[in-house]
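Sequence dictates fold. Next comes a concrete instance:
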Amino acid sequence: QQQQQQQQKFEEDNITVETEVEAASSQQLYHEHEDQSGDRIQSIKQDWPRLYCLIARVVIPLLFLICMALLFGHIIAWIEADGEREANDASLAFTYKSYLKRVTMTDAMTLSLSGVSAYCYDQYFGMSNSSTTNNDNEIDLSLREHLVECGTRLANENIPVVGLDDFFYDSGVLEEAIKFSAHTRASAANVPKLTFFWNSCGDPGSEGGDAFERNWYKYAYNIKDEWVTSYQTLYDQNIDNGMDEEGAIEQALNEARGTDECGINTAGGALFWFTLITTIGYGTAVPSTLSGRYLCYSFGFICILMFTVLISAAGDVLMEIFDDYALRRRRLSFFVKNKVGATLTWLVIFVGYMFLLAGVIQGYNDDRRGEKTPIEDAIWFSYITLTTVGFGDVTISNDTMTIWDIFYLSPLMLLGFSVLRNFLLKLSELVMHYFPEDEYTLKQRLQDLRECQEGLEISEVEDCGSKRDESVTSRDDSNLSTKEVKGHDIA
Protein backbone atom coordinates (compact mmCIF):
# COMPACT_ATOMS: atom_id res chain seq x y z
CA GLN A 1 0.00 0.00 0.00
CA GLN A 2 2.84 2.40 0.84
CA GLN A 3 4.46 1.66 -2.52
CA GLN A 4 1.15 2.26 -4.32
CA GLN A 5 0.65 5.57 -2.47
CA GLN A 6 4.20 6.66 -3.30
CA GLN A 7 3.68 5.69 -6.94
CA GLN A 8 0.37 7.62 -7.09
CA LYS A 9 1.95 10.68 -5.45
CA PHE A 10 4.84 10.51 -7.89
CA GLU A 11 2.44 10.46 -10.87
CA GLU A 12 0.45 13.39 -9.48
CA ASP A 13 3.65 15.38 -9.02
CA ASN A 14 4.64 14.63 -12.61
CA ILE A 15 1.22 15.76 -13.87
CA THR A 16 1.48 18.98 -11.86
CA VAL A 17 4.94 19.68 -13.20
CA GLU A 18 3.82 19.02 -16.77
CA THR A 19 0.82 21.34 -16.30
CA GLU A 20 3.04 24.09 -14.94
CA VAL A 21 5.47 23.65 -17.80
CA GLU A 22 2.67 23.81 -20.37
CA ALA A 23 1.20 26.92 -18.69
CA ALA A 24 4.60 28.59 -18.59
CA SER A 25 5.28 27.76 -22.23
CA SER A 26 1.86 29.00 -23.36
CA GLN A 27 2.32 32.19 -21.36
CA GLN A 28 5.75 32.62 -22.88
CA LEU A 29 4.31 32.14 -26.37
CA TYR A 30 1.56 34.67 -25.58
CA HIS A 31 4.10 37.24 -24.43
CA GLU A 32 6.25 36.56 -27.46
CA HIS A 33 3.21 37.02 -29.74
CA GLU A 34 2.26 40.16 -27.86
CA ASP A 35 5.79 41.48 -28.16
CA GLN A 36 5.79 40.69 -31.87
CA SER A 37 2.44 42.51 -32.28
CA GLY A 38 3.80 45.46 -30.35
CA ASP A 39 6.93 45.43 -32.50
CA ARG A 40 4.79 45.41 -35.65
CA ILE A 41 2.76 48.38 -34.40
CA GLN A 42 5.93 50.26 -33.48
CA SER A 43 7.38 49.41 -36.87
CA ILE A 44 4.28 50.76 -38.62
CA LYS A 45 4.41 53.91 -36.48
CA GLN A 46 8.03 54.42 -37.44
CA ASP A 47 7.88 53.50 -41.13
CA TRP A 48 4.35 54.70 -42.00
CA PRO A 49 3.52 57.51 -39.56
CA ARG A 50 1.01 59.24 -41.85
CA LEU A 51 -0.91 56.06 -42.61
CA TYR A 52 -0.88 54.98 -38.96
CA CYS A 53 -2.22 58.31 -37.67
CA LEU A 54 -4.81 58.47 -40.43
CA ILE A 55 -6.16 55.02 -39.62
CA ALA A 56 -5.82 55.11 -35.84
CA ARG A 57 -6.98 58.68 -35.22
CA VAL A 58 -9.44 59.27 -38.06
CA VAL A 59 -10.69 56.19 -39.93
CA ILE A 60 -11.39 53.91 -36.96
CA PRO A 61 -13.17 56.59 -34.88
CA LEU A 62 -15.17 57.65 -37.94
CA LEU A 63 -16.29 54.07 -38.62
CA PHE A 64 -17.33 53.80 -34.98
CA LEU A 65 -19.42 56.98 -35.24
CA ILE A 66 -20.99 55.76 -38.49
CA CYS A 67 -22.03 52.55 -36.74
CA MET A 68 -23.44 54.65 -33.91
CA ALA A 69 -25.39 56.72 -36.45
CA LEU A 70 -26.83 53.56 -38.01
CA LEU A 71 -27.75 52.12 -34.62
CA PHE A 72 -29.39 55.19 -33.13
CA GLY A 73 -30.82 56.18 -36.53
CA HIS A 74 -32.66 52.87 -36.65
CA ILE A 75 -33.86 53.31 -33.06
CA ILE A 76 -35.21 56.81 -33.58
CA ALA A 77 -36.80 55.81 -36.91
CA TRP A 78 -38.50 52.91 -35.13
CA ILE A 79 -39.75 55.30 -32.44
CA GLU A 80 -41.10 57.89 -34.90
CA ALA A 81 -42.37 55.54 -37.64
CA ASP A 82 -45.81 54.81 -36.14
CA GLY A 83 -46.61 58.48 -35.68
CA GLU A 84 -45.61 59.26 -39.26
CA ARG A 85 -47.78 56.43 -40.60
CA GLU A 86 -50.81 57.67 -38.65
CA ALA A 87 -50.19 61.21 -39.89
CA ASN A 88 -49.94 60.04 -43.51
CA ASP A 89 -53.16 58.03 -43.23
CA ALA A 90 -54.89 61.03 -41.64
CA SER A 91 -53.67 63.27 -44.48
CA LEU A 92 -55.08 60.88 -47.07
CA ALA A 93 -58.38 60.61 -45.16
CA PHE A 94 -58.72 64.40 -44.95
CA THR A 95 -58.00 64.77 -48.68
CA TYR A 96 -60.45 62.00 -49.64
CA LYS A 97 -63.14 63.57 -47.45
CA SER A 98 -62.63 66.84 -49.29
CA TYR A 99 -62.93 64.94 -52.56
CA LEU A 100 -66.27 63.45 -51.51
CA LYS A 101 -67.56 66.93 -50.65
CA ARG A 102 -66.43 68.15 -54.04
CA VAL A 103 -68.20 65.27 -55.80
CA THR A 104 -71.41 65.91 -53.87
CA MET A 105 -71.33 69.60 -54.67
CA THR A 106 -70.58 68.93 -58.34
CA ASP A 107 -73.48 66.47 -58.64
CA ALA A 108 -75.86 68.95 -57.02
CA MET A 109 -74.77 71.76 -59.32
CA THR A 110 -75.01 69.53 -62.40
CA LEU A 111 -78.49 68.37 -61.44
CA SER A 112 -79.61 71.91 -60.77
CA LEU A 113 -78.24 73.34 -64.00
CA SER A 114 -79.58 70.49 -66.15
CA GLY A 115 -83.08 70.77 -64.64
CA VAL A 116 -83.47 74.54 -64.87
CA SER A 117 -84.66 74.52 -68.47
CA ALA A 118 -87.23 71.78 -67.87
CA TYR A 119 -88.44 73.49 -64.70
CA CYS A 120 -88.90 76.79 -66.52
CA TYR A 121 -90.67 74.97 -69.35
CA ASP A 122 -93.09 73.33 -66.93
CA GLN A 123 -93.78 76.62 -65.22
CA TYR A 124 -94.50 78.44 -68.47
CA PHE A 125 -96.59 75.88 -70.28
CA GLY A 126 -98.42 74.89 -67.12
CA MET A 127 -100.15 78.26 -67.10
CA SER A 128 -101.22 78.09 -70.81
CA ASN A 129 -101.95 74.37 -71.05
CA SER A 130 -105.70 74.87 -71.59
CA SER A 131 -105.21 76.95 -74.75
CA THR A 132 -102.97 74.41 -76.60
CA THR A 133 -104.10 71.71 -79.01
CA ASN A 134 -102.92 68.11 -79.19
CA ASN A 135 -100.59 68.88 -82.09
CA ASP A 136 -99.12 71.73 -80.11
CA ASN A 137 -98.61 69.42 -77.12
CA GLU A 138 -96.48 67.04 -79.20
CA ILE A 139 -94.33 69.96 -80.33
CA ASP A 140 -94.06 71.24 -76.78
CA LEU A 141 -92.98 67.82 -75.46
CA SER A 142 -90.24 67.53 -78.06
CA LEU A 143 -89.15 71.02 -77.14
CA ARG A 144 -89.05 70.01 -73.49
CA GLU A 145 -86.81 67.02 -74.22
CA HIS A 146 -84.51 69.26 -76.23
CA LEU A 147 -84.27 71.74 -73.37
CA VAL A 148 -83.44 68.98 -70.87
CA GLU A 149 -80.74 67.61 -73.14
CA CYS A 150 -79.33 71.09 -73.78
CA GLY A 151 -79.28 71.88 -70.06
CA THR A 152 -77.49 68.62 -69.24
CA ARG A 153 -74.87 69.26 -71.90
CA LEU A 154 -74.42 72.81 -70.67
CA ALA A 155 -73.96 71.59 -67.08
CA ASN A 156 -71.36 69.03 -68.09
CA GLU A 157 -69.42 71.64 -70.02
CA ASN A 158 -69.39 74.30 -67.31
CA ILE A 159 -69.05 72.05 -64.23
CA PRO A 160 -66.01 69.86 -64.87
CA VAL A 161 -65.90 66.49 -63.16
CA VAL A 162 -62.60 66.06 -61.31
CA GLY A 163 -61.19 62.54 -61.08
CA LEU A 164 -59.78 61.10 -57.86
CA ASP A 165 -56.16 61.10 -59.03
CA ASP A 166 -56.40 64.65 -60.35
CA PHE A 167 -58.00 65.84 -57.13
CA PHE A 168 -55.25 64.29 -55.00
CA TYR A 169 -52.62 65.87 -57.20
CA ASP A 170 -54.27 69.32 -57.24
CA SER A 171 -54.80 69.27 -53.47
CA GLY A 172 -51.03 69.28 -52.85
CA VAL A 173 -51.01 66.20 -50.65
CA LEU A 174 -48.87 64.40 -53.24
CA GLU A 175 -46.29 67.19 -53.32
CA GLU A 176 -43.05 66.54 -51.49
CA ALA A 177 -42.87 68.16 -48.07
CA ILE A 178 -39.55 69.96 -47.53
CA LYS A 179 -39.79 70.89 -43.87
CA PHE A 180 -42.04 69.93 -41.00
CA SER A 181 -41.81 71.06 -37.40
CA ALA A 182 -44.01 68.14 -36.34
CA HIS A 183 -45.99 65.75 -38.51
CA THR A 184 -48.67 64.11 -36.40
CA ARG A 185 -52.25 62.94 -36.82
CA ALA A 186 -53.49 66.18 -35.27
CA SER A 187 -51.45 68.41 -37.60
CA ALA A 188 -52.47 66.43 -40.71
CA ALA A 189 -55.91 68.08 -40.73
CA ASN A 190 -54.31 71.54 -40.91
CA VAL A 191 -51.46 70.63 -43.26
CA PRO A 192 -52.33 67.43 -45.17
CA LYS A 193 -48.92 66.31 -46.43
CA LEU A 194 -47.12 63.00 -46.82
CA THR A 195 -43.66 62.49 -45.33
CA PHE A 196 -41.27 59.54 -45.47
CA PHE A 197 -38.54 60.58 -43.07
CA TRP A 198 -38.84 57.46 -40.91
CA ASN A 199 -40.65 54.99 -43.21
CA SER A 200 -39.80 53.21 -46.43
CA CYS A 201 -43.01 52.59 -48.36
CA GLY A 202 -41.93 51.06 -51.65
CA ASP A 203 -43.74 48.51 -53.77
CA PRO A 204 -44.36 45.43 -51.57
CA GLY A 205 -43.56 43.18 -54.52
CA SER A 206 -40.05 44.60 -54.78
CA GLU A 207 -39.35 44.48 -51.03
CA GLY A 208 -39.03 48.23 -50.72
CA GLY A 209 -37.27 48.65 -54.07
CA ASP A 210 -33.61 49.18 -54.73
CA ALA A 211 -31.82 52.51 -54.47
CA PHE A 212 -33.12 53.73 -57.83
CA GLU A 213 -36.74 52.84 -57.01
CA ARG A 214 -36.71 54.54 -53.64
CA ASN A 215 -38.06 58.05 -53.98
CA TRP A 216 -40.76 60.17 -52.45
CA TYR A 217 -43.23 60.14 -55.36
CA LYS A 218 -43.26 56.37 -55.70
CA TYR A 219 -43.88 56.07 -51.98
CA ALA A 220 -46.69 58.66 -52.08
CA TYR A 221 -48.62 57.16 -54.99
CA ASN A 222 -48.14 53.67 -53.62
CA ILE A 223 -49.68 54.38 -50.22
CA LYS A 224 -52.40 56.49 -51.87
CA ASP A 225 -53.51 53.53 -53.97
CA GLU A 226 -53.31 51.22 -50.95
CA TRP A 227 -55.38 53.64 -48.87
CA VAL A 228 -58.10 54.05 -51.50
CA THR A 229 -58.37 50.26 -51.88
CA SER A 230 -58.63 49.88 -48.11
CA TYR A 231 -61.33 52.58 -47.96
CA GLN A 232 -63.45 51.01 -50.69
CA THR A 233 -63.27 47.61 -48.99
CA LEU A 234 -64.27 49.02 -45.60
CA TYR A 235 -67.06 51.14 -47.11
CA ASP A 236 -68.57 48.13 -48.91
CA GLN A 237 -68.40 46.07 -45.72
CA ASN A 238 -70.14 48.80 -43.73
CA ILE A 239 -72.95 49.07 -46.31
CA ASP A 240 -73.39 45.29 -46.34
CA ASN A 241 -73.64 45.36 -42.53
CA GLY A 242 -76.63 47.69 -42.78
CA MET A 243 -74.99 51.02 -41.89
CA ASP A 244 -76.31 54.22 -43.43
CA GLU A 245 -74.17 55.86 -46.08
CA GLU A 246 -72.95 58.72 -43.92
CA GLY A 247 -71.90 56.42 -41.09
CA ALA A 248 -70.26 53.98 -43.50
CA ILE A 249 -68.20 56.78 -45.04
CA GLU A 250 -67.11 58.21 -41.69
CA GLN A 251 -66.06 54.84 -40.27
CA ALA A 252 -64.22 53.87 -43.45
CA LEU A 253 -62.33 57.18 -43.40
CA ASN A 254 -61.17 56.58 -39.83
CA GLU A 255 -60.16 52.94 -40.30
CA ALA A 256 -58.62 52.94 -43.79
CA ARG A 257 -54.87 52.32 -43.89
CA GLY A 258 -52.37 52.67 -46.69
CA THR A 259 -49.12 52.38 -44.75
CA ASP A 260 -49.32 48.82 -43.44
CA GLU A 261 -46.64 47.67 -45.90
CA CYS A 262 -44.17 50.40 -44.86
CA GLY A 263 -40.93 49.47 -43.13
CA ILE A 264 -38.37 51.28 -40.99
CA ASN A 265 -36.17 53.70 -42.95
CA THR A 266 -32.85 52.99 -41.23
CA ALA A 267 -30.81 54.99 -43.74
CA GLY A 268 -33.07 58.02 -43.34
CA GLY A 269 -32.76 57.78 -39.57
CA ALA A 270 -28.96 57.51 -39.87
CA LEU A 271 -28.92 60.65 -42.03
CA PHE A 272 -30.92 62.48 -39.35
CA TRP A 273 -28.55 61.26 -36.63
CA PHE A 274 -25.52 62.37 -38.65
CA THR A 275 -26.97 65.86 -39.10
CA LEU A 276 -27.60 65.87 -35.35
CA ILE A 277 -24.07 64.98 -34.26
CA THR A 278 -22.54 67.39 -36.80
CA THR A 279 -24.92 70.14 -35.54
CA ILE A 280 -25.99 70.86 -39.14
CA GLY A 281 -29.66 70.40 -38.30
CA TYR A 282 -31.39 70.87 -41.66
CA GLY A 283 -34.76 70.72 -39.89
CA THR A 284 -36.39 68.51 -42.53
CA ALA A 285 -36.84 65.52 -40.24
CA VAL A 286 -37.50 66.24 -36.58
CA PRO A 287 -38.64 63.91 -33.78
CA SER A 288 -42.23 64.55 -32.72
CA THR A 289 -42.30 62.16 -29.74
CA LEU A 290 -40.85 62.63 -26.28
CA SER A 291 -38.96 59.33 -26.55
CA GLY A 292 -37.22 60.53 -29.70
CA ARG A 293 -36.29 63.81 -28.08
CA TYR A 294 -34.97 62.08 -24.96
CA LEU A 295 -32.75 59.96 -27.22
CA CYS A 296 -31.37 63.13 -28.80
CA TYR A 297 -30.86 64.71 -25.38
CA SER A 298 -28.79 61.83 -24.04
CA PHE A 299 -26.97 59.79 -26.67
CA GLY A 300 -27.18 62.57 -29.24
CA PHE A 301 -25.21 64.93 -26.99
CA ILE A 302 -22.59 62.25 -26.35
CA CYS A 303 -22.18 61.69 -30.09
CA ILE A 304 -21.86 65.45 -30.63
CA LEU A 305 -18.93 65.54 -28.20
CA MET A 306 -17.32 62.53 -29.86
CA PHE A 307 -17.63 64.04 -33.33
CA THR A 308 -16.16 67.33 -32.09
CA VAL A 309 -13.08 65.46 -30.85
CA LEU A 310 -12.91 63.62 -34.17
CA ILE A 311 -12.94 66.88 -36.14
CA SER A 312 -10.04 68.19 -34.02
CA ALA A 313 -8.03 64.98 -34.51
CA ALA A 314 -8.73 64.85 -38.25
CA GLY A 315 -7.78 68.51 -38.61
CA ASP A 316 -4.47 67.96 -36.80
CA VAL A 317 -3.58 64.95 -38.95
CA LEU A 318 -4.54 66.77 -42.15
CA MET A 319 -2.53 69.86 -41.22
CA GLU A 320 0.56 67.85 -40.21
CA ILE A 321 0.51 65.91 -43.49
CA PHE A 322 0.05 69.09 -45.54
CA ASP A 323 2.78 70.99 -43.66
CA ASP A 324 5.19 68.09 -44.03
CA TYR A 325 4.50 67.88 -47.76
CA ALA A 326 5.01 71.63 -48.21
CA LEU A 327 8.17 71.85 -46.08
CA ARG A 328 9.80 69.08 -48.09
CA ARG A 329 9.55 71.39 -51.13
CA ARG A 330 11.17 74.78 -50.85
CA ARG A 331 8.78 76.45 -53.24
CA LEU A 332 5.81 75.46 -51.10
CA SER A 333 7.30 76.29 -47.72
CA PHE A 334 5.91 79.83 -48.00
CA PHE A 335 2.39 78.43 -47.57
CA VAL A 336 3.36 77.04 -44.16
CA LYS A 337 5.89 79.46 -42.66
CA ASN A 338 4.13 82.68 -43.68
CA LYS A 339 0.96 83.25 -41.66
CA VAL A 340 -0.83 85.17 -44.40
CA GLY A 341 0.12 82.57 -46.97
CA ALA A 342 -1.01 79.71 -44.73
CA THR A 343 -4.37 81.38 -44.04
CA LEU A 344 -5.04 82.08 -47.72
CA THR A 345 -3.98 78.54 -48.64
CA TRP A 346 -6.52 76.91 -46.35
CA LEU A 347 -9.19 79.38 -47.51
CA VAL A 348 -8.56 78.40 -51.13
CA ILE A 349 -8.67 74.71 -50.18
CA PHE A 350 -11.99 75.24 -48.39
CA VAL A 351 -13.58 77.07 -51.34
CA GLY A 352 -12.34 74.41 -53.74
CA TYR A 353 -13.73 71.69 -51.52
CA MET A 354 -17.11 73.43 -51.54
CA PHE A 355 -17.21 73.09 -55.34
CA LEU A 356 -16.13 69.45 -55.07
CA LEU A 357 -18.95 68.64 -52.64
CA ALA A 358 -21.40 70.53 -54.87
CA GLY A 359 -20.44 68.28 -57.79
CA VAL A 360 -20.98 65.18 -55.64
CA ILE A 361 -24.45 66.37 -54.63
CA GLN A 362 -25.35 67.12 -58.23
CA GLY A 363 -24.37 63.59 -59.23
CA TYR A 364 -26.25 62.11 -56.26
CA ASN A 365 -29.54 63.88 -57.06
CA ASP A 366 -29.22 63.10 -60.76
CA ASP A 367 -28.59 59.43 -60.00
CA ARG A 368 -31.21 58.95 -57.29
CA ARG A 369 -33.96 61.42 -58.10
CA GLY A 370 -33.51 61.81 -61.83
CA GLU A 371 -33.43 65.59 -61.61
CA LYS A 372 -30.77 68.17 -62.31
CA THR A 373 -29.70 70.30 -59.36
CA PRO A 374 -28.63 73.82 -60.44
CA ILE A 375 -25.00 74.54 -59.68
CA GLU A 376 -25.92 77.55 -57.58
CA ASP A 377 -28.19 75.38 -55.38
CA ALA A 378 -25.49 72.73 -55.07
CA ILE A 379 -22.90 75.32 -53.98
CA TRP A 380 -25.41 76.79 -51.52
CA PHE A 381 -25.95 73.32 -50.08
CA SER A 382 -22.19 72.85 -49.66
CA TYR A 383 -21.87 76.18 -47.87
CA ILE A 384 -24.73 75.71 -45.40
CA THR A 385 -23.56 72.14 -44.75
CA LEU A 386 -19.84 72.72 -44.15
CA THR A 387 -20.50 75.82 -42.05
CA THR A 388 -23.20 73.84 -40.14
CA VAL A 389 -25.74 76.62 -40.75
CA GLY A 390 -28.21 74.10 -42.17
CA PHE A 391 -31.10 76.28 -43.34
CA GLY A 392 -32.81 73.24 -44.85
CA ASP A 393 -33.99 74.79 -48.12
CA VAL A 394 -31.60 72.53 -50.08
CA THR A 395 -31.00 69.14 -48.48
CA ILE A 396 -30.42 65.45 -49.11
CA SER A 397 -33.73 63.59 -49.04
CA ASN A 398 -34.21 60.90 -46.44
CA ASP A 399 -36.30 58.72 -48.74
CA THR A 400 -33.53 58.27 -51.35
CA MET A 401 -30.79 57.59 -48.80
CA THR A 402 -29.28 54.12 -48.53
CA ILE A 403 -27.04 52.69 -45.83
CA TRP A 404 -24.03 52.63 -48.16
CA ASP A 405 -24.43 56.36 -48.82
CA ILE A 406 -23.61 57.06 -45.19
CA PHE A 407 -20.20 55.40 -45.61
CA TYR A 408 -19.02 57.83 -48.29
CA LEU A 409 -20.98 60.99 -47.43
CA SER A 410 -19.72 60.96 -43.83
CA PRO A 411 -15.99 61.07 -44.76
CA LEU A 412 -16.73 63.82 -47.28
CA MET A 413 -18.44 65.91 -44.60
CA LEU A 414 -15.68 65.23 -42.07
CA LEU A 415 -12.97 66.28 -44.50
CA GLY A 416 -14.82 69.52 -45.22
CA PHE A 417 -15.22 70.25 -41.50
CA SER A 418 -11.51 69.57 -40.95
CA VAL A 419 -10.49 71.95 -43.75
CA LEU A 420 -12.72 74.68 -42.32
CA ARG A 421 -11.29 74.04 -38.85
CA ASN A 422 -7.72 74.45 -40.12
CA PHE A 423 -8.61 77.66 -41.93
CA LEU A 424 -10.17 79.14 -38.79
CA LEU A 425 -7.14 78.07 -36.76
CA LYS A 426 -4.73 79.77 -39.17
CA LEU A 427 -6.95 82.84 -39.25
CA SER A 428 -6.91 83.11 -35.46
CA GLU A 429 -3.09 82.77 -35.45
CA LEU A 430 -2.88 85.54 -38.05
CA VAL A 431 -5.10 87.84 -36.03
CA MET A 432 -3.16 87.17 -32.83
CA HIS A 433 0.09 87.87 -34.69
CA TYR A 434 -0.95 91.35 -35.88
CA PHE A 435 -3.04 92.14 -32.79
CA PRO A 436 -1.10 90.52 -29.95
CA GLU A 437 -2.42 90.38 -26.43
CA ASP A 438 -0.92 92.68 -23.80
CA GLU A 439 1.97 91.22 -21.84
CA TYR A 440 0.07 92.00 -18.70
CA THR A 441 -2.97 89.87 -19.50
CA LEU A 442 -6.40 89.99 -17.95
CA LYS A 443 -5.67 86.74 -16.13
CA GLN A 444 -2.57 88.25 -14.53
CA ARG A 445 -4.44 91.41 -13.59
CA LEU A 446 -7.21 89.48 -11.87
CA GLN A 447 -4.69 87.24 -10.13
CA ASP A 448 -2.74 90.22 -8.78
CA LEU A 449 -5.94 91.87 -7.60
CA ARG A 450 -7.10 88.66 -5.90
CA GLU A 451 -3.76 88.19 -4.14
CA CYS A 452 -3.74 91.80 -3.02
CA GLN A 453 -7.24 91.64 -1.55
CA GLU A 454 -6.70 88.40 0.37
CA GLY A 455 -6.27 89.00 4.09
CA LEU A 456 -6.83 92.80 3.91
CA GLU A 457 -9.37 94.87 5.77
CA ILE A 458 -12.17 96.56 3.89
CA SER A 459 -10.52 99.95 4.32
CA GLU A 460 -7.27 98.66 2.86
CA VAL A 461 -8.82 97.17 -0.28
CA GLU A 462 -8.75 100.53 -2.06
CA ASP A 463 -4.96 100.59 -1.80
CA CYS A 464 -4.72 97.49 -4.02
CA GLY A 465 -5.05 99.66 -7.12
CA SER A 466 -1.92 101.63 -6.38
CA LYS A 467 -0.04 98.52 -5.27
CA ARG A 468 -1.11 96.77 -8.44
CA ASP A 469 0.15 99.65 -10.57
CA GLU A 470 3.48 99.51 -8.75
CA SER A 471 3.72 95.76 -9.38
CA VAL A 472 2.94 96.31 -13.05
CA THR A 473 5.63 99.00 -13.30
CA SER A 474 8.20 96.79 -11.58
CA ARG A 475 7.26 93.85 -13.81
CA ASP A 476 7.60 96.00 -16.94
CA ASP A 477 10.99 97.26 -15.76
CA SER A 478 12.18 93.72 -15.13
CA ASN A 479 10.95 92.60 -18.54
CA LEU A 480 12.73 95.55 -20.16
CA SER A 481 16.00 94.79 -18.38
CA THR A 482 15.67 91.12 -19.36
CA LYS A 483 15.22 92.10 -22.99
CA GLU A 484 18.26 94.36 -22.81
CA VAL A 485 20.37 91.55 -21.36
CA LYS A 486 19.19 89.15 -24.03
CA GLY A 487 19.92 91.74 -26.69
CA HIS A 488 23.43 92.28 -25.30
CA ASP A 489 24.07 88.54 -25.30
CA ILE A 490 22.90 88.25 -28.89
CA ALA A 491 25.15 91.15 -29.91
Remarks:
- DSSP finds 15 helices and two strands in the chain.
- The longest strand covers residues 199-200.
- The two ends are 99 Å apart (CA to CA).
- Confidence is low (pLDDT under 50) at residues 204-212, 482-491.
